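Researcher: Last one for today. Full complex below.
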Amino acid sequence: MRRWPRIAAWCVAALAVAGAAVGSAVVYFGWYDVSATGPHTMPVYALLDVASTRSVKLRSADIKVPDLDSPQRIRRGDALYRAHCAQCHGGPGQAPEPYALGLNPPPPPLVTSARERPAAEVFWIIRQGIKMTGMPAWQYRMTDEQIWDVVGYLRVLPTLSAQQYRDAAPSGDPASGAAPASIAPTEARPSGVRAGDRRVGEMGAGEMGVANMPAGDVRVGDVRAGDMRLGDAKAGRDALQQYLCVTCHAIPGVPGARHYVGPSLDGMADRSRIAGVVPNSPDSMQQWLMDPQRIKPGTAMPALGLREQDARDIAAFLQTLSNVE
Amino acid sequence: MRLIARPPLILLGAAALSLLAACGDERPPLAQNLSADALPSTANAARGRQLVSKHGCLACHAVPTVRGPASAVGPPLDNLGRQAYLTGLLPNTPANLVRWLMDPPAINPRTAMPNVGLSQAEAQDIAAFLLSLPKGQEAQ
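Model: Here's the assembly. Have a good evening.
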């Protein structure tokens, strides 16, 4: 009876030593997968997510928010956003650059950040960056006033349709900083979508990928029709991590897919239409994924440069998302 | 027994403290006027819930808290308040939601969603209901 504390202590110590040994082995022998294509497991993702959310909240608690609504501030923020943020975060209807698609964690669309996070947290994240995420610190490259300009613009961003975002772009060089036409926070009027005016959408998905990829890495054209295989749901589940699907759609069973920019994909196989406009079949899903703007001009979903096989695989994966027993 | 009972108590205390700290100052999100509060004060979520059954929304959409056939023609409407865009074309603001509900084909002529002939007041009630839905379960 009196010996049990000692036995318990030894057991705890032995367990701790064994745990440390296993941990060291995992690290030393390289068993932990650091590749960007290997998604986090659910527990690791949840742990990192909570740690980063709480850390940002704690550190931004004392930041005083200036007036964010002045039109000049929003105009300056618009230019800065297009020059420094849209490359990785994209915009309404605009895909990020190819190098950003493969980031892990994926860069979130900033409409979600603006809808969820307080101004002070957004300011802090832009200023300080976040370790190991690809989000750089802008503190040494922008003044605090400029960072607030970006925050002011992010407040307006959720009220812009894809069409308005495109129309407000300064013509020519997006980084020129020219004053955009009109980005007052008005209600959307997307009914004026002109068929001939699809600067982003008119490029086919394939062309887009080829045009933007380094010359040595063009694989789109290499795949002949005969080399294609049937859609593979498991390959599709891996591929959708590489096209930022998870940053906009809630997808059951996929770590990090908990955002609601577009509708949840839960039960997608049971749905009779894609985007409300075309009947849901694997073929039309494949076409939709490769070029959403062609099927539904003006949609906020951008063409993400999917290769045909990836689109086929992802369509096959979406076919597995059924709630009908 | 007391030795064993103490650590969980300490843990509970720590959890309670961190919860308190979390509740301390909730700041509003950066983007504003996107919740049901931005609708006219006449909009009534309870009335909206009844209108959802009456106008047959359930024939195409799964709507939490409203019982009916399990249908998946359109997307489920839980988490509609968190969604950034409506039908991919409109920013999801309360005013846009009302416009969309009143006449979907006017916004997207090819949409499968019909105009069910809602008055503006009815559409505001339904918008108030949809935007006040409890958050659905996170996708697991």
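The two ends of chain B are 38 Å apart (CA to CA). Chain B touches chain A through 43 residues (CB under 8 Å).
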